[in-house]
Amino acid sequence: MSEKLGMYYAEEFGMKVGIVRPYNCYGPRDHLDPEMSHVIPALIKRVFDGEDPIKVWGSGKQTRAFLYVNDLAEGMIQAIEKYPVPDPVNLGTDEEISIKELIKKILDISGINAKIEFDLSKPDGSPRRNSDNSKAEEKLGFQAKTNIDQGLKETIEWYRNYQ
């Protein structure tokens, strides 16, 4: 809906519009409601709430690529500065990680020793979720700078300090 609105404003008023489609964003100040949050904040909250074993939906084999919030902000700025046209651009990263690897990293970075239990009665969801970032690279020169380890460290540090 907002993409269409941006397209209409560009057409009707000549407004410069940059349209981005962010993929699997995470970082400090993320939404932590266990019923509504994304996978990274949900897992971090479970770890720090002392859940043991930590129950993870599905097999853990499904992969995702996660975009750190600072990289999203940079990509949004680049979109409006370098490609202010009503043509959507995916913002993501090519660094895929399985959910199993993700929860292990969260536990390791947190320094918390808990068991992991994969609930096979729950769905895996899509086996693989990643974005095609080629247009962002071509039009914006965009590449995410923050790898998953650094992004998780910063997110977990924020959680420790502010929750």
In short:
With 163 residues, the protein is α/β, with parallel strands linked by helices. The protein has helices at 2-13, 39-48, 69-82, 99-110, 134-140, 148-162, and strands at 20-22, 25-26, 54-57, 63-65, 67-68, 89-91, 96-98, 116-119, 128-129.
Keywords:
16% strand, three-stranded mixed β-sheet, Rossmann fold, alpha/beta, 163 residues
Question: Describe it for me?
Answer:
The protein is an alpha/beta fold. It has one domain: Rossmann fold. The chain has six helices and nine strands; from the N terminus they run H-E-E-H-E-E-E-H-E-E-H-E-E-H-H. It has helices at 2-13, 39-48, 69-82, 99-110, 134-140, 148-162, and strands at residues 20-22, 25-26, 54-57, 63-65, 67-68, 89-91, 96-98, 116-119, 128-129. A three-stranded mixed sheet has the order 7-4-9. Helix 2 crosses helix 4 (99-110) and helix 4 (99-110) crosses helix 6 (148-162).
- CATH architectural group: 3-Layer(aba) Sandwich
- What is the assigned CATH homologous superfamily? NAD(P)-binding Rossmann-like Domain
Strand content: 15-25%
Distance between the termini: 34 Å
Structure annotation, total helices? 6
Q: Regarding CATH, which class?
A: Alpha Beta
Helical content class:
40-55%
Radius of gyration in whole Å, from Cα? 18 Å
What are the secondary-structure elements, in order, as H or E?
Answer: HEEHEEEHEEHEEHH
Report the sheet with the most strands, covering strand number, pairing sense and barrel closure: 3 strands, mixed
Shape category: elongated
Average pLDDT rating: 93
